[in-house]
Amino acid sequence: MRLSLFSSIVASYKSPVSTPTLIKFNPQLVFLNTFYPHLRRSSATAATGSDCAITKNSAGMASASSKLAVVGNPKLIPRELDEVVGIARKCWIKFKKEATFGMYTPFLVCLAAGNLKLETFRHCVAQDAYFLNPFAQAFEVAEDCAEDDDAKIGINELKKITLNKLRMHDSFVQEWGIDPVKDTSVNPGTTKCIEFLLATASGKIEGVKASGKLVTPFEKTKLSAYTLGAMTPCMSLYAYIGKELQRVIDGESNHPYRKWIESYSSDSFQAFALQTEELLDKLSVSLTGEELDIIEKLYYQGIKLEIDFFLAQPLVQKSVVPLYGEPNLEKRHLMMFTDFDLTCTTIDSSAILAEIAIITAPKSDQSQTENQIARMTSGDLKNTWGVLSKNYTEDYEQCIENILVTEKVEKFDFEGLRKALEQLSEFEKGANLAVVESGVLKGLNLEDIKRAGERLMLQDGCVNFFQTLSVRRKDDKVNADVHVLSYCWCGDLIRSTFSSGGLRDVMKVHANELIYEESLCTGEMVRKVESPIDKLQAFSAILQQQQEKFGGGGSGNDEEEKKLTVYIGDSVGDLLCLLEADVGIVLGSSLSLRRLGNHFGVRFVPLFPGVVEKQKEYVERDPSSSSTTWKGLSGILYTASGWAEIHAFLLGS
């Protein structure tokens, strides 16, 4: 079935040219035409219990003379989504990663752990008291400006709810023994939130020309929409935080801050936030694209200020976030490791190399010159890739099943897992040998590969994370090295990908390398990193070199206190390194990875609850201890939703 489907896909390619040139890729076909289909992830694979799913696509391949296109979609909000949801939901989807940064603020992590100092909590509650009155005032302005009767009624209801919350807040303040006037003054974070909200409600908006007195109904409605645009992110953020924290504390009946968390996770507050979003949508219906852009900017400002509000809370205790700011870690050397394919990228690199090969292949044997490296015709290449793909997929799945027929262990067994993955390692090496011997890589042009890498779309937030890390390294705020460990057949593809983000000198690449003669691949490969065992050996060798460089080749005990290892990966090939690292973070939802991990006693823990548990451990242990709470070979791997969450955890805002 897969073979016939693969054949129908590659049959849609237009005839390629005979010489390497600039190439235009069809992202959908690249996604399908891959030598490693078992790594493709989708809802379909989760439902069927397989990591392999191929969807038929009849789109044709653009001519090879076209300019190389960006692989993937750079828009945060797809066009289809843009047409079916309102501005409030679109803004939330676009800026939800900012909410993730809010969750990983020291204040909220300590609060979730239940060990936030009472004086810090009291300070935050007192700040809320300062903020609620201006919030009610802003609702009043929005109500006065709204021309639609239904909108007026809705905003009036929200204003009443806010005033009621203010009365409830007064009761809450008394219960905790807080006197805002005596106990605290308005801090800068609160002041900025208040000033932003009141300025927006008064029409003082960046990029909007002040019109003086509002005359027309449209002008009034527009200001009402802008005001709601500044207020809505606060409601949406608190509703999100309430739900996330509620999941973490479920089952903890004695959690000291349960009442505060439940006030925001409650059905009534969730409905309050939803009603605010719906009113923003209603008031924005008649706005132009330019005016909707202003609402988007106001929304972004609002959510950023709310996160700054949490960061402004004076913490009188130590926190485990951000990780590199954890006490005892500031002076340690961060050894950062990441996989490349589908960890950093949205598409497997083998798919890109396969597509370049097919597009640039000659139409027939007669079209090749004597000076060229002998290549298969495009038709033969399509067929050969199909056979390789089919054989690889079937043999890989069988190899995984052979490992899983052994008895499942009760406790984490790293050595048992490593020994089992030796079987997979032999298979991976054999598969790469088959690729080399087939000749499918012959004639690939180095310049085509580099251009493809420069335009390769990475996972959202990936480049930003490494760029932030790079800037902090230059500013001497982070002592870190970054290593890429990859099965990719072509290290040049990886280096060119990161060079487009100014990261070529930051990322140290450890991968296989194609062999060239005058920029054309001979079909041979320097095979360095082909298997889980190879990755583990490379990982260990890098750490050993680090130890010899700074530890003088001694026992390494001092060096163990100096380095912190973090590994980020998505597949079975990363499993051993993920477990060896002090912190192993899994991206994506590879079923094979989880099945193998579970079989050998590995626990997969969502990152945020895991961080909260570490915060509890940190407070409970000896404060004079110089060791970190993060250690390798614990048998625990942390699952993250994306690079934004990794960024928030490791580096903070």
UniProtKB/TrEMBL annotation:
- CDD domains for this protein: TenA_C_AtTH2-like
Domain Thiaminase-2/PQQC, by residue range, is 106-203, 227-310
Q: Which PANTHER family match?
A: BIFUNCTIONAL TH2 PROTEIN, SI:CH1073-67J19.1-RELATED
Q: Name one GO cellular component term.
A: cytosol
- Give the GO biological process terms: thiamine metabolic process
Q: Which SUPFAM superfamilies match?
A: HAD-like (SSF56784), Heme oxygenase-like (SSF48613)
Q: What name does this protein carry?
A: Thiaminase-2/PQQC domain-containing protein
Domain of life, source organism: Eukaryota
